[in-house]
Amino acid sequence: MLKRIAIVAASVIVAVIAVPAILILALSPAPLLPPEAADNLSQADQYFQKLVEPGYPPGISVVVRKDGRVVFNEAYGTADFAVSAPMTPQTSVRWWSVTKLVTAAAVLQLVDRGRLSLEDRLHDYLPYVAFVGDDGEPRNVTVLQLLNHSSGVQDNIPEGLLELRFPDEPAIDQVAYARDLIATKSLLTHEPGSYSRYTNTSYILLGALVQAASGERFETYVRREILIPLGMFATDFVFVKQPVARGSHPVFHFITPFLFLAGSEAQRAMYAIQDNLIWFSEFYLKYTGSTSLNGPVVEMSRFNQMVLNGGVLEGARILSASSADMFVRDHQIPVAAARGLQRSMPFTRMRI
């Protein structure tokens, strides 16, 4: 009898979990797969037009550069359904983890200027940062290990997804934020430098490092030393120019229940549900070094072109040639290779 009850109970539990999961999987939007090859930009243009027709993704912006100049700059779909705003080449979008590239550039720029060294210990600039290994003994983490995700520092996801800041709230001091964050993440996941594991926290700490080494707020330094010299006037840590892509998320997705259960901050960020999409109001994340830039995709392409040009764009020298080369060079860690572990990531291969 007990065995039969256990089987029935297990069956009910499986059904309760499996049925919603199957429904979500069946109803989740599946973007149109790209063609195996496109012989010209006209074919690419046709694909992007068809890609947004079903409504997910609602809008995209695409820029192609060749031989140092923009040869394709188009946008498709909707930026904000509430005001029927179409995507345009000037629409500002959230960069999310592409921000890490700019933060890495700020760090390498300080290295070029003799303010930092890749082998410096983070603790020397941020004395409150103290890491320990599994044995409880102190460990040192270097600047390079943070850059290539081999530090072993714990990630701040998923809890960091709810660290929201709204436009009517003041910006957060990144050194203070990093101090409070690392107080809960002092235990490393692996020995520094042994192999790579992607983590937002590394770049949160690098943002704080830029602030500590430069003597000014991280955002101020990045604006003056990178964004403005590159002519990226519509790119910032807040939206500085309309139009803006507000952002959306599929209703039928495994994350959706967590959005509604995550508390008032997450609910405040959602302002409408339309066409099977949850649309978000304007918000930012409290940490800026890893995920917080916003701006038109065409300006993002200016940063990328600077890297490909060896650190210079239109006469503005942002990085030395050797520092720019670090963005496109794989930082293989010999110990990791010998153990058959995951390779260290070059800065440009970020998960977004």
What is the strand and helix layout of this fold?
Layout lengths: L1 H26 L13 H12 L6 E8 L2 E12 L4 E2 L6 E2 L4 H14 L18 E2 L5 E2 L3 H5 L16 E2 L8 H9 L17 H15 L3 H10 L20 E3 L5 H6 L2 H6 E5 L2 E4 L3 E2 L8 E2 L1 H12 L3 E2 L2 E2 L3 H5 L8 H6 L13
Antiparallel strand pairs: 1-2, 2-3, 4-12, 5-6, 7-11, 8-10, 9-10, 13-14
Helix pairs in contact: 3-6, 3-7, 5-6
CATH class of the domain at 96-238 and 285-339: Alpha Beta
Provide the CATH topology of the domain at 96-238 and 285-339: Beta-lactamase
So what's the oligomer here? single chain
Instruction: Please outline the major beta sheet.
Output: 3 strands, antiparallel
Tell me what you see in this structure.
A hairpin with a 2-residue loop joins strand 1 (about 60-65) and strand 2 (about 70-80). About 35% of the residues lie in helices and about 15% in strands. It is of the alpha+beta class and about 350 residues long. The protein has a three-stranded antiparallel beta sheet. A three-stranded antiparallel beta sheet has the order 8-10-9. Helix 3 packs across helix 7 (about 220-225) and helix 5 (about 175-180) packs across helix 6 (about 200-215). The chain is built from twelve helices and 14 strands. The chain has helices spanning about 1-25, 40-50, 100-110, 145, 175-180, 200-215, 220-225, 255-260, 265-270, 295-310, 320-325, 335-340, and strands spanning about 60-65, 70-80, 85, 95, 130, 140, 165, 250, 270-275, 275-280, 285, 295, 310-315, 315. The chain has a domain at about 95-240 and about 285-340: Beta-lactamase (3-Layer(aba) Sandwich), CATH 3.40.710.
